Amino acid sequence: MTSPLERFYSVIPAGGIGSRLWPLSRADAPKFLHDLTGSGSTLLRATWDRLAPLSGEQRIMVVTGRAHRAAVETQLPDLADHNVVLESDPRDSSAAIGLAAAILVNREPDVIIGSFAADHVIRGDRLFRAAVTQAVATADAGYITAIGIQPTEPAIGFGYIHSGSPLDITGAESALLVDSFVEKPNLATAKKYVSGGAHLWNAGMFISRADVLLEELKRNQPELHAGLVELASVWDDPATRGPAVDRIWPTLTKIAIDYSVAEPAAAAGRLAVVPGHFDWDDVGDFASLAKLNSGGRKTDLAILGENARVLSDASSGIVVSQSNRVISLIGVKDIVVVDTPDALLVTTSANAQRVKSVVDALKLSGRDDVL
Amino acid sequence: MTSPLERFYSVIPAGGIGSRLWPLSRADAPKFLHDLTGSGSTLLRATWDRLAPLSGEQRIMVVTGRAHRAAVETQLPDLADHNVVLESDPRDSSAAIGLAAAILVNREPDVIIGSFAADHVIRGDRLFRAAVTQAVATADAGYITAIGIQPTEPAIGFGYIHSGSPLDITGAESALLVDSFVEKPNLATAKKYVSGGAHLWNAGMFISRADVLLEELKRNQPELHAGLVELASVWDDPATRGPAVDRIWPTLTKIAIDYSVAEPAAAAGRLAVVPGHFDWDDVGDFASLAKLNSGGRKTDLAILGENARVLSDASSGIVVSQSNRVISLIGVKDIVVVDTPDALLVTTSANAQRVKSVVDALKLSGRDDVL
């Protein structure tokens, strides 16, 4: 019998644009295609490099939009053709991850899959691998398994996982049963969570047997499940895949996997969590990006951009430069300046969450050229 | 005998870069070559158009740097060759205006000259002409004559002229003797000046007989005067002008005409002032520019730029756009954003005076490409 990790397959949904990072992130240059840490790697490539030692490069599937195929293949030259799943339009994470599960379970009935967003930043690869390895063992025992991040501060921008009793699983000493998911809390509640020790950040990483995931999905979203199973049944036949995608994909319910699988599984006592002690950030907005790039010091201006030429007396905030223009800041605090060839954003860290509203306004006013 | 106005000659020193308006103003695109009001005219062209009805187009002399000759001639196609005075390097206003005076007095001994900066904004042409006409009459009576602007607010960014007794000059009913010049005051003092009624803004406009001006200059700056007279004596001979410029110009003292002529003349009772009731602004920085372009409303974001595409919730400040990039501002107040093809400035109205320090820093760090 093979070990659980030998049956492990990584799935990378590479879908979201990251509108809160406009004008850096665009429809044709989504967040996962950017290097947001100055590491020299795009977030997608870094995700691949983190997973390859766990599942092997031949066992990483990427689910992405048709428009991004070329860019994804440039980033990941070793990505096998049969591991590319192209969406004709985005239909949220249940469809993306569910389809990957349905395709893989047909090829390999006892496969264990783990889904990892293409656009998060993780530091501490050894700790990451340790957590995933425990999660794979937990998944092999039949649990849908989240990796929950040990909170380092009372963040109000993340959802939390309330953990319960320890599970007694070989190779997964720190696995816990999940009591419930908690939506983004207020600051007072977040502080209680952090001091209490039972709450972990929900990083949206789920590891499970593919058949277990599909069973849970069938229970909660039977139509979505049926569509995915039908699509998967013809997927590996090039002659029938295309028409089936055209017919079925547009009918699939758009729903996050948190709601279609994770929360119902938690309520039914079928969800486990393995605490992760690595650094994790979903880089949700420019305030996060500033923090991520200021080396943790609140009094530094973060500068992102290979050819950035910044002249500044600003003591905080971030400059993202995609040009070689001289950027000069005088007497501004907590500023966010994002300088791209066709669009410029000026805001403050405190207003970073409102960037999405600009994207909405640009859509409404028909300025699709800069979206 | 000709009327004073028939002997009037306009002199436009077009020299200063306007460093406080960087990166809009540059060494090769100084302030006077910009349209700062959205009128469709550059400040230089507007100055010409304002003076032409007074002196006639054939009697406007422009003193500018060699580097700006082509741009100036494009702006002013009717500028006669013999009315162009080119400086090999900037040597401040005494040299520029003094040389114009020395050249013109040789051609026309009883000429009355008036000097008007190329980069100020004036609104109210009829009132401007009325003031200049009175100033020309006052100059004809032997006074060096300033046009002082009736203050509309207790500005602390301008110097003031303290006016004294009325002069009894035909055709110059509002001319007054000048008591003294006052440097930029603090706010309390400025408020007293405005309520007192005897103080006018010094707009740097001086009208006088050329010979009277040169006499005053000789008294206070004999070496500078001697150099200018020598230079002027060969000016109209193309064979000798060049070598004389190369030899003499670099030796001339750099001093503002306020110090070499106006202040000593005031102290000696030889300076008059005619109050001007037109709107005047020297557009010294982006805060002034914002005010000038917000229609006087403090709660409007001013936008300058033909192709500006601005999406903003900012309620004050200014955006200057020299590109057709989309510029988006979120949650920023009193912001100054100046977007040019190779340089970007982000600051606030309160920090507008500090822009010059950026230019100094860029010089020091050798980034002359954007100066």
From TrEMBL, chains A, B:
GO biological process, one term: GDP-mannose biosynthetic process
Transmembrane recorded as keyword: no
Domain Nucleotidyl transferase: 11-293
Top-rank taxon, per record: Bacteria
UniProtKB keywords: Nucleotidyltransferase, Transferase
Protein name: Mannose-1-phosphate guanylyltransferase
GO molecular function: mannose-1-phosphate guanylyltransferase (GTP) activity
Keyword Lipid metabolism: no
MannoseP isomerase/GMP-like beta-helix domain mapped to chain residues: 315-362
InterPro entries in the record: GMPP_N, ManC/GMP-like_b-helix, Mannose-6P_isomerase_type2, NTP_transferase_dom, Nucleotide-diphossugar_trans
Organism: Mycetocola manganoxydans
